[in-house]
Amino acid sequence: MHWNAVADSESGPYNCPMSRFIAVSQLLLAVIIAVAVIATSINLILISIRPETISVVNTMIGQGVLIICMIAIANILFRKGLHTLKAEGQSDSKSR
Fold it and tell me: According to the model, what pLDDT value does residue 18 have?
């Protein structure tokens, strides 16, 4: 039998043996990135206490952009992982 990770015309989307593992990995990675966002935010607060120089301003801008990007990636991974787990759970209940 041929498995397709994206869509299987007979069984619906996300019907492959590794889909639950991938979904859990995506959720775990989203949590790790969220912890990194918190750590980077604390670092940004501590850097903003320093006397203002051009390197401090550059660091604040760079970390601000990094925080926004990491939040977006964590959000995408979390939603995708949750969607895949829900789809996997529905396909399990339909097959029983």
Answer: 82
